[in-house]
Amino acid sequence: MTRSKAFLSLVIFSTILVHAQSYLLCYQCVSTHPGCGTPFKWLWHKTVSCPEEDDICVKVIEKVGAEERITRDCLSSLKGFRTDIPADKYEGCRKSSLDVKLGHYVNNSIPELDIKRDYYDSTTWCFCYFDHWCNSANISTSSNLLIVLISIFFFVRNIDQ
Fold first, then answer.
1. Cα(54)–Cα(127) distance, rounded to whole angstroms?
2. pTM above 0.85, yes or no
3. What are the start-end ranges of the H helices in 21-134?
4. What is the Cα–Cα distance from 95 to 124, expressed in whole angstroms?
5. Are 93 and 60 in contact (CB under 8 A)?
6. Domains in the chain: ranges and CATH
7. Pick from 72, 63, 75: which is nearest to 124 by CA?
8. Residue range 37-73, pLDDT digits in tens
9. Could you tell me if residue 133 is left (phi over 0), alpha (psi between -120 and 50 degrees) or otherwise beta?
């Protein structure tokens, strides 16, 4: 492979990679799906590219007694219907905000359509946006940028030889 072809392929690869890395990738699942609870089986679940440029990966942990429900998604996907999102969305976990409408009934004649949501004793929101797929577990994943830089280094080193 000539030097110019190698350089051209490296530029094309880098352009595609930079474009693909412009949005955050997060896992999207609920713990009622197999493998989405604790422990999390990351090979089983799809990742989504968050729609907003400044989006955040979210892991919501809702508990009642021994029962636990975990939701993993992008924050922009949950903003439309969740009103208990904490005001502080910086990296880390915190309790949900107080929802004044939580626990109030909408007068429905069909019992299945009741929207009373006071079932969970505690709700914890975990936010992360420093790395892709960071809403998977408590263990941080390695940086994709570091892997790409190491790959480029060895690629360029092999061309010079």
1. 13
2. no
3. 75-78
4. 4
5. no
6. 25-139 (2.10.60.10)
7. 63
8. 888 888 888 888 888 888 899 999 999 888 899 999 9
9. left
